[in-house]
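User: Please predict the structure of the protein below. I'd like the answer in structure-token form so I can feed it into my own downstream comparison script.

Assistant: Understood. Taking the following sequence of 378 residues as input:
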Amino acid sequence: MAVLAPEPFLSLRTRSAVRTVGSLRSGWTKADTFLLLSIGILPVWWVLGFAQFLWGAIALPLFFMVLRLPEIRLPRGSGLWMLYIGWTILSASQLDELNHVLAYVYRMTVLFGAALLFVYLYNQPAEQVPRERVIGWMCVFWAWIALGGLLGVLAPNFTINSVAHRLLVGFLPGDLGSNGWFVSLTTPRAAQVQDFLGFPLPRPAAPFSYTNEWGSCFAFTAPFAFAGLLIFRGWRRSLLLAVTLIAFVPAIVSLNRGLWVTVIVGGLYFAVRSAWEGRPQAAVTVGAIGAILGLLIVVTPMRTLVEGRFESDHSNVARLTLYTTVAQEVQHSPLFGYGVPRVSEDYPNLPAIGTHGHFGQRSIPKESRDCCCSWRLR
């Protein structure tokens, strides 16, 4: 039976709410095993070409582990999430091609895998799986994102003919093995090289398939890095601080304005709330990081990149065209959308409608998805 739990997943109100990692004495658990296999060795899965299929691989065992829980607690607001999942399932009625079915199944495994892992962790006793340990694992994820981004900057043309691609291409019917979407999932590459500023620029993608995916994950895991700076001590804190500073170099080179705005607003919120709750050291740390990054932008060639990004209207025009097309296509399937992204017949060279988020495949633009996520993570 599911029970709505009033407590938040992480509280920042009192110093006692967050213990230092060095004081933990809890042993290894099944949750640590799943986090190790999905996050801890993520670079290994990426090199092999299986990184994009991890959530599907852990979804089935997690499903049975959740069923065996004595009681299932859910945070308040989960009704909206379950409504969205139901809406997603109903959108399958609009699938009309085999490649659309495969894409839909892939996206659903990601959705259910992530949801089941959250529910399982949320219901673990704090004595067995302390919140600090979950934050620690997410900081490991943050580190892989940072190092993957650095690889994209230093070796933008790095790519691998992966084991996953060689194995799976023989099992797919027809020409699906050469489908661009499938190739992007199974072919690791360090960056997407684009030239909308007038010269080739590597935009980090590793350990993901696309640079926008890298930027989204960077933005949404940054709060865990800030939390880690609070709870870690000694060499762990120094290492995380170094990784955090390094991470912002590929973040700036990515030219992802949504990432920039998200991190800036999130950092300001974190600093203000920390100061309000009597932790001025945390606010000073965030301010120092911001000052260092600002100085680096001003005195290094990154200033040219930032200025060029705001002066370029490349993505503005493309996004406006996509959103206009979305508004038109919604009229043909207003309730269930199309199940998966669809290539526009009028603009075949632009990204498929719905590639910017799972809400997008139901014909709702990415910005609506981001607003909902930001509200839930406030």
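That's the full token string. Residues 27-128 form one domain.
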